[in-house]
């Protein structure tokens, strides 16, 4: 009993002390710093400067006026017009000088310069472009120098609330670092890439930060800062980064010598599971994607997947929606295999699916439509899984795709755009280029053209003239 009274007295004495007013006795007692991480990461983050010429015709009609040009001079315009410069950031991911940045930072660039933290300036060339993820890989002319670089960290390890640092070149001020936390994962409302699975943070990101590094406290690269949500153009604490899962295939493509990232085509069409489907299929939760269609000869067909299967996970990663399925498939390399956990006949099955590259159509022609018809000036080819993958389209029932249109052509005047897929002409289904040419030439009363643009089917009516 005496011992208990002694402990109680000691506790009350401690509690009565104003512990929060004690002055720290050393720097260690107050120091909370990210300096070691910054010191490790900083040298591998670079500033990216891209320049391209703008024709004076695109600037203003005044530049075509000889009096205007006399007063303002030819030198300001140069041979091609004014030079427009853009700035951004990048991350060295290989000691031999491979830099990852955003595609929109260098889009249309004729000259790309990269400046390291120590002031060294190097010319960069594009080696891999991946518009679907808004990423690009650059190769620096290093003259065989080994450069500081960052290793990737698996973004699947991230949790909401984790501390992160964002590095970049905001407003051209130079190397800058900001801190924050992971605010959310797998954000799909941002439209700057096709796979719509972003890391959201509250680290301050501003113009010029695009392409910069998002790192964890161990100094590894977990994302590329790519977009902000803002009504003013400045940071309001909602920033988005492309996760490292999508960076890895771009880096791998450099090693393979590919100019573009080739992703597996599993040969199926899926949709998200609805509440009604959950009840009818006796699923435990509202998750997974329902297989709507299996394409003959594709990976899923070879793996014996079936229409009506519900894919619940891929390689142990749960699938919650169509976008999460597309994201997970985009992270996997061609030539490997994936384990699909599938709900079929009220039981769980594991199916091994080979991951193959998108097949091409044999003898697929690429031609320009000519003559007096609504498609004149459109350059077309048959839609294959490979072409659908290249243009970020879904391969459904085939058709003929417009991949380019001449300026001022009848096709352009009729409102058609590159990426439109011609499905029918005068109610005749179009599967090949030869079919399109045949049906376009046979019309005395006009043309009724059905085409898909995005997820919508539109119709063009044109009378003969």
Category from helices, strands and their pairing: alpha+beta
Number of discrete helical segments: 12
Poorly predicted runs: 56-80
Sheet bearing the most strands, described? 7 strands, antiparallel
CATH-defined fold name of the largest domain: Thrombin, subunit H
Radius of gyration: 28 Å
Helix content: 10-25%
Number of domains: 4
Number of strands: 25
Q: Distance between the terminal alpha carbons, to the nearest Å?
A: 110 Å
CATH-defined architecture of the largest domain = Beta Barrel
Q: Report the β-strand fraction as a percent range.
A: 25-35%
- The CATH class assignment of the largest domain is Mainly Beta
Shape field: globular
CATH homologous superfamily assignment of the largest domain: Trypsin-like serine proteases
Give an account of the 3D structure:
With 465 residues, the chain is an alpha+beta fold. It has four domains: 39-140, Trypsin-like serine proteases (Thrombin, subunit H, Beta Barrel), CATH 2.40.10.10; 155-256, Trypsin-like serine proteases (Thrombin, subunit H, Beta Barrel), CATH 2.40.10; 268-354, Roll (Pdz3 Domain); 366-463, Pdz3 Domain (Roll), CATH 2.30.42.10. 19% of the residues lie in helices and 34% in strands. It has twelve helices and 25 strands. The strands form four sheets. Strands 19, 20, 21, 22, 23, 24 and 25 form a seven-stranded antiparallel β-sheet that branches. A six-stranded antiparallel β-barrel has the order 1-2-3-6-5-4. The N and C termini lie far apart (110 Å). Mean pLDDT is 82; it is low at 56-80.
């Amino acid at each position: 009993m005496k011992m208990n009274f002694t402990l109680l007295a000691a506790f009350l004495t401690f509690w009565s002390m104003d512990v929060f007013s004690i002055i720290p006795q050393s720097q260690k007692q107050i120091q909370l710093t990210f300096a070691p991480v910054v010191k490790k990461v900083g040298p591998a983050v670079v500033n990216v400067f891209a320049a391209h010429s703008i024709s004076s015709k695109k600037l203003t009609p005044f530049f075509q006026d000889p009096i205007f040009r006399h007063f303002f001079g030819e030198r300001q315009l140069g041979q091609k017009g004014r030079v427009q410069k853009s700035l951004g950031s990048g991350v060295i991911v290989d000691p031999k000088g491979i830099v990852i940045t955003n595609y929109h930072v260098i889009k249309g660039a004729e000259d790309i310069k990269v400046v390291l933290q120590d002031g060294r300036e190097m010319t960069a060339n594009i080696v891999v472009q991946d518009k679907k993820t808004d990423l690009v890989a650059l190769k620096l002319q290093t003259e065989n120098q080994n450069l500081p670089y960052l290793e990737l960290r698996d973004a699947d390890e991230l949790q909401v609330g984790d501390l992160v640092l964002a590095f970049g070149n905001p407003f051209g001020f130079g190397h800058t670092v900001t801190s924050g936390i992971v605010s959310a994962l797998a954000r799909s409302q941002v439209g700057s890439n096709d796979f719509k699975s972003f890391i959201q943070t509250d680290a301050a990101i501003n113009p010029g930060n695009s392409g910069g590094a998002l790192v964890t406290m161990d100094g590894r690269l977990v994302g590329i800062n790519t977009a902000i949500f803002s009504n003013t153009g400045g940071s309001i604490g909602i920033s988005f980064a492309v996760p490292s899962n999508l960076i890895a295939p771009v880096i791998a493509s450099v090693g393979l010598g590919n100019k573009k990232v080739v992703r597996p085509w599993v040969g199926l069409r899926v949709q998200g599971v609805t509440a009604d489907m959950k009840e009818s299929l006796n699923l435990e939760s509202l998750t997974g994607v329902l297989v709507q269609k299996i394409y003959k000869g594709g990976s899923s067909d070879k793996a014996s997947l079936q229409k009506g299967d519900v894919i619940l996970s891929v390689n142990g990663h749960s699938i919650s929606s169509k976008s999460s399925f597309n994201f997970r498939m985009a992270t996997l390399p061609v030539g490997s295999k994936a384990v699909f956990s599938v709900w079929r006949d009220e039981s769980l099955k594991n199916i091994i699916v080979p991951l193959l590259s998108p097949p091409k159509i044999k003898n697929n022609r690429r031609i320009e439509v000519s003559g007096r018809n609504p498609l004149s000036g459109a350059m077309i080819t048959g839609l294959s899984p490979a072409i659908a993958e290249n243009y970020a389209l879904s391969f459904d029932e085939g058709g003929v795709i417009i991949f380019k249109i001449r300026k001022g052509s009848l096709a352009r005047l009729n409102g058609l755009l590159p990426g439109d897929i011609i499905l029918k002409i005068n109610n005749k289904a179009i599967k090949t280029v030869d079919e399109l040419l045949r049906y376009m030439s046979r019309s005395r009363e006009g043309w009724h053209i059905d085409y898909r643009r995005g997820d919508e089917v539109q119709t063009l009516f044109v009378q003969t003239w």
